[in-house]
Write a structure and sequence with these properties.
849 residues; alpha/beta; flat
């Protein structure tokens, strides 16, 4: 618990502060015992209120007190300094000097002009290189003894505690001054208060000083460092005293600093720019003004003042004009402000642009044909050869036009190399073509020399033509090779180009072109499946068999009207119901694929398996119609029955759920059941045609086989129980088992038959949660999280019923982040039609130029 320092405007407010603080801290068990004030009447009131508890209360009535290291004279209400240094003992070492300096406690910088001398002296000690316990040199020793003996004069210093501020003052301003010298830079802040009577009071608030760095920097830079120190100090003081920003004024005697602050930081070098930007984040440039050096109180702190010369009005109360009613804020103009200005480097470079005709064509053949026709026209005009009426370009014209394009290309990108080969016959040592030993052939084309002169290859393969990279002509050559190789891969294209051309950095150029080819992207796109999702709650929640089910159709299958000859067959279907929790299967033969046919099968299913609360299916038209009709029938039933029994029939409704369109993976449970059903039917029926009665019988037997499949892995240990099957939840055992004896007449236990059945059922569900549910921890496929396309991305939409190379271009306009993850796409080739696709059916199309 430390001291509490506070103030108030009058005695009544002081008494209220006393009571509030005593009650607040007393509620937590803390008691404020020592009280002191410059008001005798306040101390009397505190004493009167604690007459019965004076044993726990101590009133300080001494004239001088210690407050946080400072000495306060409560009668005169001023702060005083007491210098208590131990007697000087020999030898005087660096350790003793620093120990004495640490005893000079000045938290608010009121004696900064004297303390800065001690700071500078410590820097001198470090520069002298003496050890901690080594005696000071004679010059430094003499300087320290004189300074130490004068410190006792600081005891005459008095700083007023009250700065004459009241709640009804007209104006409260902060004026800060900064200055720098070769040894230090400083900042000092004064409070200028205009009372309600118009009386102006100026008082010293705080100051800070720093020793100049050992590395020598210019005085303007030190002045800027002082300005940074002042900006931080003004921000701290204004925050504590809640002085608005417009009442803050900063002063400096450096015109260069003012010029720096009035320009954008980007104009100056790094050292200046960083500090100017730091100042301008606190104060605006118009809040800085110029002050003459003789009126700058910070000059005392930057140069240092002896204790005997400390008492001066400039440091204690600031310049005299601060007490004037109107203060003139003026700035001197600086003619030369480029002292620390950035030097803008201007680089001149000459570039040779490609022939503008090349950029007009995207095909090499078209470009060469145009050049050939232009040459034909020019040659006919110069009468070097007669004009040809044939509109087709001959092979000779095509070859010459191609050489013209190659020479033009090489003259731009290999200008220096061609010049050196023509003048000196060799390349510059710094040339990148030195290892290729190039030469210029008769037609003026630069070719690779290489080391294959004596090989049996053709001349064009031994000495390919040099082509630069990142050129439009190079792009046309690569595009021609890609077309000639029938959209071949990088290796095939490089092998084709190397037969005639040597393109620098050809691998990267070819790979870049292939990556931007839209046709290759479309044919090479791979559908990236999303991460396998979480199982729905209905799959992992225990409930009665078929209480929550899935449904799907299989077929068509051929069904005969009756046995014997002369009866035609018709198309029938298999309706599969599967329990979402136990995977139990129920199969029904359906005569047609209509809503009425499915409703009949659904009624038979409910009659034998019980009420189904929720049912899932895909988006088949018969399912959608059945869901609509069930809903209407249920609403009609509720309206026709009396009100008192309407609530009891609420359980007769079945809630229908549809999986997202074209997302077959959401119906994997019943799709697997359909697959298993077809497996048995294909091997039992084959190509035979059965009657409806025979088909229903076979389906019932297949249903029994499917409900006898184990839900968990079968153990090899003969002592363990048989595997759990869906039949255990239906009849208490697998439906397809070997014949066994009848144990009904045996006395199994003392439990009742109903209790035994319930115990068996609980045992099955316990094994279901332990053996069956734990199998779903693994993700068998779709194991990686793929980044989903964003709204606005250009994508390729894959259709299951289209050929592999057929895709739809589209732009994503909406995304649904639910369980189904349906994305709405605007098709670019279907007149802007909006289509819905799962994310697993969408491929991202990279952006091409």
């Amino acid at each position: 618990m430390d001291d509490l320092l506070t103030g108030c405007q009058n005695v009544e407010e002081g008494q209220r502060v006393y009571k509030d603080m005593k009650m607040l801290l007393g509620s937590a068990g803390f008691q404020l015992r020592k009280w002191c004030s410059n008001s005798e009447s306040l101390l009397e009131k505190i004493k009167e209120g604690n007459k019965d508890k004076l044993g726990n209360l101590e009133l300080k009535i001494d004239s001088v007190m210690k407050i946080l290291g400072l000495t306060w004279n409560r009668r005169s209400d001023v702060f005083e300094y007491s210098v208590q240094l131990p007697p000087l003992s020999e030898p005087v070492t660096k350790r003793k000097v620093i120990s004495d300096v640490a005893r000079l406690f000045d938290p608010l910088g009121w004696i900064a002009p004297t303390i800065i001398t001690a700071k500078v002296f410590i820097q001198k000690l470090w520069l002298s290189g003496i050890d901690w316990d080594e005696e000071l040199p004679s010059q430094l020793l003499k300087e320290w003894i004189i300074y130490r003996n004068e410190l006792c004069l600081l005891t005459n210093l008095q700083i007023p505690r009250w700065i004459n501020s009241r709640a009804d003052d007209k104006l409260v301003e902060l004026h800060g001054f900064s200055d720098a010298s070769n040894v230090a830079y400083a900042a000092v802040v004064y409070a200028r208060i205009v009372s309600r009577n118009g009386v102006i009071h100026v008082n010293l608030l705080t100051s800070k000083t720093k020793v100049a760095p050992v590395k020598q920097i210019s005085i303007p830079k030190l002045e800027l460092c002082g300005a940074v120190l002042l900006a931080k100090l003004l921000l701290e003081v204004s925050t504590v005293l809640t002085v608005p920003k417009e009442n803050i004024h900063a002063w400096t005697d450096s015109t260069v600093v003012l010029a720096w602050l009035r320009s954008h930081p980007s104009r100056w070098k790094t050292f200046i720019a960083n500090r100017v930007s730091e100042i301008l984040t606190v104060l605006d440039s118009n809040q800085w003004s110029h002050v003459q050096s003789k009126d700058n109180p910070a000059d005392c702190a930057s140069r240092g003042v002896k204790p005997q010369d400390y008492q001066n009005d400039l440091w204690s109360t600031g310049p005299l004009w601060l007490k004037s009613e109107n203060i003139i804020y003026k700035n001197k103009e600086v003619n030369d402000t480029n002292l620390e200005e950035k030097t803008n480097k201007v680089c001149y470079a000459t570039t040779s642009e490609e022939f503008s005709l090349w950029n007009k064509y995207s095909s090499l053949r078209k470009l060469v044909r145009v050049v050939a026709l232009c040459r034909r026209f020019l040659l006919s005009r110069t009468a070097l050869q007669p004009e040809k009426k044939n509109k087709y370009v001959s092979n000779e014209e095509y070859t010459e036009a191609l050489n013209v394009c190659i020479r033009q290309h090489q003259s731009i990108y290999f200008q220096e190399d061609l010049y050196n080969l023509e003048k000196t016959g060799k390349l510059n040592n710094k040339s990148k073509l030195t290892s290729l030993s190039p030469f210029v052939e008769d037609v003026g084309v630069l070719r690779v020399g290489g080391r294959l002169q004596y090989s049996q290859m053709s001349e064009e393969m031994k000495h390919p033509i040099l082509i630069a990279k990142k050129s439009h002509f190079t792009h046309l050559l690569i595009a021609e090779a890609h077309s000639r190789t029938l959209h071949g891969g990088p290796q095939l294209m490089i092998n084709y180009l190397r037969t005639k051309y040597w393109i620098i950095d050809v691998k990267n150029m070819v790979k870049l072109y292939v990556r931007k080819c839209v046709v290759c992207i479309r044919h090479g796109s791979i559908v990236e499946h999303q991460l396998m999702g979480q199982l729905p709650s209905v799959r992992v929640t225990a409930c009665r068999p078929f209480f929550r089910s899935g449904v799907d159709f299989a077929g068509p299958i051929s069904i005969r009207t009756s046995k014997g000859r002369g009866h035609h067959s018709y198309k029938g279907y298999i309706c599969l119901f599967i329990c979402m929790a136990t995977k139990a299967v129920h199969l029904e033969a359906v005569s047609d694929l209509t809503t009425q046919g499915f409703l009949a099968a659904f009624k038979r299913f409910v009659a034998r398996r019980g009420h189904c609360a929720d049912i899932w299916s895909d988006n088949g038209t018969n399912f959608i119609g059945a869901a609509r009709e069930l809903k209407s029938l249920f609403s009609t039933e509720r309206s026709a029955i009396a009100t008192e029994i309407a609530n009891s029939l609420a359980c007769n409704g079945t809630k229908w759920h549809f999986i997202p369109p074209r997302a077959l993976n959401f119906g994997g449970l019943w799709e697997a059941g359909i697959k298993s059903t077809k497996y048995h039917l294909q091997r039992v029926i084959g190509n035979s045609t059965l009657t409806y009665e025979e088909m229903a019988t076979v389906l019932t037997q297949v249903e029994a086989c499917l409900n006898s499949r184990p839900l968990s892995q079968i153990s090899n240990n003969p002592g363990e129980q048989y595997a759990l099957t869906p039949g255990h939840f239906l009849v208490g055992e697998p439906l397809v088992v070997a014949p066994d004896s009848n144990y009904e007449a045996c006395n199994l236990s003392n439990l009742k038959r109903w209790q035994l059945t319930q115990r068996m059922l609980q045992h099955f569900w316990r094994r279901w949660s332990q053996d069956y549910i734990t199998q779903f921890f693994h993700r068998r496929k779709w194991k990686h999280l793929i980044q989903e396309p964003n709204i606005g991305d250009v994508v390729l939409v894959r259709e299951d019923d289209l050929p592999p190379a057929k895709w739809l271009f589209g732009i994503i306009i909406d995304k649904h982040e639910g369980l189904d993850k349906i994305t709405r796409v605007v098709s670019l080739k279907c007149k802007g039609n909006i289509i819905k696709r799962p994310l697993s059916k969408i491929c991202l199309l990279p952006v091409t130029e």
